[in-house]
């Protein structure tokens, strides 16, 4: 008796120290011990109660039967919900001696959410790749059949096919950029970068698009522009994506302004912050879309983005690059009033 009591006290002390819910259950299903985390989850009345009356989900009941029948490592998932969220628990039952099961609950909600996100991402990518492939396959068939002897149609179809192939190339290269940036997001780049060089390089690369859109782009740089610790190529990508969007979606405003400034203090930043605004005077964005623009594949107008060769990944890449630089993206816009995309970068 004494030694049993001694064991019990030790077990209680041990399981109380564990952060996740743990219960000791007798063969008849009665809970003879529950740690603090289990009491918080299931209520104090769980002690001494019938476990099946509290974990009332068929999967858990079946798992308990298996465990009591001698299964060494039975698991099941168990879902609890509160007003604000649902929690998914993985319940594991392991025998301890002949008469007791140790039930432990492990919160796997984050894993479930990450898996759901991954599935959605794969579905999106597949969908995005499928549409150009469908177009290509259709034209290949046409060229093999009815259009084989029609040089004019062939020229037209080949140029559509080239555009679709280009779209796929763009998508694949955006996906690669995204995965590269996400992979390195924890590693902050430290090389001093002169942002005026970055902006001039971006403008030079987009010069053909600027000229063909007939848009005037002005660049305003203060004299004493500080360098920022960063990754030159990634920063070029940030302003390339922002300027490209301004050209694609804000072209009817006729002009684009890029302006750099130093802000002495911004909440959430230590020390001065380098701010770059990319402003267009186009049709602007409805506020309901603004919080979602940096989500992968989110576009206000899907067909329009597609027509422009967009992938819906540009701003997601911008956000991840800025995160890696411990920076931030702010978007201000109203319908009919153009849009300003501002990047904030720490200077130290
Ligand atoms: N300057 C802008 N003016 C209006 N809408 C914009 C602007 N920049 C981005 N958007 C909207 O945000 C969406 C997402 O942008 P992005 O991630 O770069 O994808 P993409 O350009 O490939 O569609 C665009 O499809 C567009 O609807
Ligand atoms: Mg874009």
Protein described:
The protein has 348 residues and is of the alpha+beta class. It folds into three domains: 2-107, PAS domain (Beta-Lactamase, 2-Layer Sandwich); 110-183, Helix Hairpins (Orthogonal Bundle), CATH 1.10.287; 188-348, Histidine kinase-like ATPase, C-terminal domain (Heat Shock Protein 90, 2-Layer Sandwich). The chain is built from ten helices and twelve strands. The protein has helices spanning 2-17, 36-42, 51-54, 58-68, 109-144, 151-183, 195-213, 232-249, 302-307, 314-324, and strands at 22-26, 31-34, 74-81, 86-96, 100-107, 191-193, 216-220, 228-230, 255-263, 273-280, 328-333, 339-346. The protein has a five-stranded antiparallel beta sheet with strand order 2-1-5-4-3, sandwiched between helices. Strand 11 and strand 12 form a beta hairpin. The longest helix is centred in the middle third of the chain and has 36 residues, at 109-144. The protein is extended and about 80 Å long. The model has no long low-confidence stretch (mean pLDDT 92). The structure holds adenosine-5'-diphosphate and magnesium ion. Adenosine-5'-diphosphate is lined by residues 241, 245-246, 249-250, 280, 282, 285, 293, 299-301, 305, 310-316, 339. The site of magnesium ion has 5 residues, from helix 8.
